[in-house]
Design brief:
With 550 residues, this protein is of the alpha+beta class. It is built from 18 helices and 20 strands. The strands form four sheets. Strands 1, 2, 5, 6, 7, 8, 19 and 20 form an eight-stranded mixed beta sheet that branches. Strands 9, 11, 12, 13, 14, 15, 16 and 17 form an eight-stranded mixed beta sheet that branches. Strand 1, helix 1 and strand 2 form a beta-alpha-beta unit.
Length: 550
């Protein structure tokens, strides 16, 4: 029996598209398989904010940010916390990725027509004293065009490959098995699903209309993680984090179901670090949902007051926008169903960014004047829509009205207005004291030492109860599922490994399916801007390695 292609790529997200681009560049014939309709081409990357981790970039240097490969690698290892035997390959992938981010990544992106917004953000902030996890300096570079802008050149390369007769796309093909010939995985089998006109991101039918079998010399798995599958998220939830919340918002479409990981495992692949996941603590219910349980992540500045369900301030060290995993562990181990940000108009105008391409139409649409408008006073339109229509928001003239609104949203009487006032006043005293040693106050002052943060992201220290900065605002926050940090174990050539440590013949993996490289390049925590970049880097590696092997 002959081959249908040189390589079969399973999964039409960013990592799969990059792998296809590399294979086409090498003149290889490719079949691209995906269970979703063509409308969802690009997968999760389409919905992303477009953040990219770069080191010692011209954008950083123009803003006075001093960065280096050595500092970034130290931050990565301090944040990842590698502590297992199976972290052997993730460690090596981490070193390779930081080298890429500090080296050719930016020029490689520019060669593909991808441009970077000039203001560098500071996601997953490190502590002001330099201790603990997180980025020591701002490294979050936003793509001009957000997620769709990252995808565009690789979608174009796919179309060119189709036009040249090198690529065949098989949408609505759901893989259920991998088969071998003479010990080499060369067969992909599964179900042909009924045609679907489901718009991008919405659930499509799983009704099967038939079966398929495809054969190639190599198979590249780029099928994503488990973030859209609440059952798998709960099944893999680690004991160290306590019990998962009863209410989980979902940050990715339902097709991010993780089922292909099980198919690969049954074929002999080793799946490692499955208990390492990256879920956000700052999820808000989307007032205009696209998929079931759709939540949006708030990208917070450091000034909001963070409270538990009873209105108590979270322990010192839990500052908005820093140590996501540490905050998640505190919240879930304490059994909190939700937390609160308390802020005011002045803070929300500058510090309340929303993640996602659809929540940032100015950047996604490349509208220069609208982007410049962010620097001016006023609540951004997408944020205003949540204030007006979001189920998790309260806007109030005074503390008593705020407390009543918070209780109404939560459906209980947990917030006492007098105690809430005392908590806000205590925060305000610390934040406005130039010599204050409160960790949040130190974080705010440290952040404002960077030009980009001072210009576009962090407001001057002030009292939340300052009437000139009102009204008061509360936002209920829920845990939001997002990324799988573990995955199929791979070597630096993206070859999938077996339990014995040897390559599974014919099989490669990239993107979230491979834990973005090695089966867990991030360890326990991400520095952010590393998920799209991980898809780019590992997809490129897998495509080049597969092309060289066939």
């Amino acid at each position: 029996m002959g081959y249908d292609a040189d390589v079969i790529v399973i999964g039409a997200g960013l990592a799969g598209l990059v792998a296809v681009a590399e294979l086409v560049e090498a003149g290889r014939r490719v079949v691209l398989v995906d269970q979703e309709p063509e409308a969802s081409l690009g997968g999760q990357a389409h919905w992303s904010f477009g953040g990219l981790f770069l080191v010692d970039s011209p954008e950083q240097r123009r803003l006075g940010v001093r960065d280096s490969r050595e500092l970034a690698l130290a931050d990565w290892f301090a944040t990842a916390g590698f502590d297992r035997d199976e972290d052997r390959w993730p460690r090596r992938w981490a070193e390779a990725y930081v080298d890429f981010a500090a080296g050719e990544k930016r020029s490689w992106l520019r060669a593909h027509g991808i441009k970077i917004f000039p203001v560098v953000g500071w996601a997953e902030r490190g502590a002001a004293d330099g201790a603990g996890p997180g980025n020591s300096v701002p490294r979050f570079h936003i793509t001009w065009g957000t997620g769709p802008g990252v995808l565009a050149p690789f979608v174009r390369r796919l179309r060119e490959g189709v036009a040249r007769g090198l690529v065949e796309t098989r949408f609505r093909h759901r893989v259920t098995g991998l088969g071998r010939t003479a010990g080499v995985v060369d067969t992909v089998t599964g179900e042909v699903l009924v045609p679907s006109s489901a718009p991008r991101g919405t659930a499509s039918s799983r009704e099967a209309a038939g079966t398929f079998e495809l054969r190639a010399q190599a198979v590249v798995i780029t099928s994503g993680g488990i973030g859209g599958n609440a059952e798998l998220v709960r099944a893999n939830w680690p004991e160290r984090l306590g019990a998962p919340p009863e209410r989980l918002l979902t940050g990715v479409p339902a097709h991010v179901d993780g089922l292909m990981l099980g198919v690969a495992e049954r074929a002999g692949a080793r799946l490692i670090n499955r208990d390492r996941m990256w879920h956000y603590t700052e999820g808000i219910t989307n007032w205009d949902p696209i998929w079931p349980g759709h939540g949006i992540r708030v990208l917070p500045g450091p000034s909001s007051l963070w409270l538990d369900p009873a209105g108590r301030r979270l322990p010192a060290g839990h500052v908005p926008g820093a140590d996501t995993l540490g905050a998640l562990e505190h919240i879930t181990r304490a059994g909190h169903a939700h937390t609160w940000f308390v802020l005011n108009r002045r803070v929300i105008e500058k510090e309340f960014a929303l993640s996602g391409s659809e929540q940032n139409p100015d950047l996604t649409g490349k509208h220069v004047l609208e982007v410049l408008g962010r620097i001016r006073a006023g609540v951004p339109g997408p944020v205003r829509a949540f204030l007006d229509r979001g189920a998790d928001f309260v806007v109030a003239r005074d503390v008593e009205e705020l407390a009543a609104g918070m209780n109404r949203v939560a459906g209980d009487e947990a917030i006492d207005a007098a105690e809430l006032r005392r908590t806000i006043e205590a925060r305000d005293r610390e934040i406005t004291d130039p010599a204050g040693s409160d960790p949040q106050a130190l974080t705010i002052r440290h952040a404002r030492g960077f030009r980009g943060e001072r210009l576009a992201r962090v407001v001057p220290p002030h009292a939340l109860l300052d009437p000139k900065a009102g009204p008061l605002i509360a936002a209920r926050l829920s845990v939001l599922t997002r990324k799988t940090l573990g995955g199929l174990e791979t070597d630096l050539s993206s070859r999938v490994l077996t339990a014995g440590g040897e390559p599974l013949p014919g099989v490669y993996a990239a993107g979230e399916a491979a834990g973005f490289g090695g089966g867990g390049v991030h360890g326990y925590r991400s520095l952010e801007g590393t998920f799209l970049g991980g898809c780019l880097f590992s997809g490129r590696s897998a495509g080049r390695a597969a092309a060289g092997a066939v």
